[in-house]
Amino acid sequence: MQTVRARNNPAYSPFFQTQDRYTVLFGGAGSGKSYSVAQKLVLRCLRDKGERILVIRNVYRTCRESTFRLLIEVASTFGVEVTANRSDLSITFPNGAQIIHAGLDDPEKLKSIAGITSVWIEEASEVKEEAFRQVDLRLRGDVPTYKQVTLTLNPTDSRLWIRRWLDENPDLFVLRTTWRDNAFLDQQYIDVLKSLPDDLR
Q1: Cα(135)–Cα(110) distance, rounded to whole angstroms?
Q2: Which of these, 134, 144, 148, 163, is most buried using a 10 Å CB contact count?
Q3: What angle do CA 133, 155, 24 make, to 5 degrees?
């Protein structure tokens, strides 16, 4: 495999450094939030064989062409040969660390998952509060590093419960970015974004 040098967006440096239990990343199209989360999760797996990270979307089948594919792509930028199981959407690293996927449309499968070190909820605006609470309960017990729940969502799509949750917990780690914070966008894509109304970015 040809090794490609991984590049990080400076705007996300605080996110890479935080070990807070809850992190919330708001960002529209082109902001790089999902890519940065994928980078952090891959790095965690590379550093500790005990990592078992759960990635969740509201509908399981949407994981295949989004987070699952993205995580494999990011792993390749670090020159890592992972074992990607397309049947159960699991990614296993050479040291045994693992990233697994689940959907909130299959709650029984979610209940059976144990030994999780961290969780990424992509498109969190689609998730109901009760489902979020159930996911949060999966993250318990001793872990080799630190426990963290990361929510990524578009700033215009946050549900009322997410806004209330943030208001009730002002000390949560929150990062807001736009496409202007993404140092690696090509000019053609920037031109497309500039042509869109604000609510579509």
Answers
A1: 8
A2: 148
A3: 45
State the Cα–Cα distance between residues 38 and 74, nearest whole angstrom: 7
* pLDDT tens per residue across all 201 residues of the chain: 333 446 788 999 999 999 999 999 999 888 999 999 999 999 999 999 999 999 999 999 999 999 999 999 999 999 999 999 999 999 999 999 999 999 998 877 787 888 999 999 999 999 999 999 989 988 888 888 999 999 999 887 677 899 999 999 989 999 999 888 888 777 886 678 677 666 555
**Placement of tokens 């935080």 in the chain:** 18
0.85 cut: is pTM over it?
A: yes
* Partners of 24 in the β-ladder: 151, 174
- d(CA 16, CA 5) in angstroms, rounded, equals 17
- Write the DSSP string, 130-188: HHHHHHHHTS-S--SS--EEEEEE-TT---HHHHHHHHH-TTSEEEEE-GGG-TT--HH
Cβ atoms 46, 74 nearer than 8 A: no
Sign (positive/negative) of CA torsion 51, 52, 56, 60?
Answer: positive
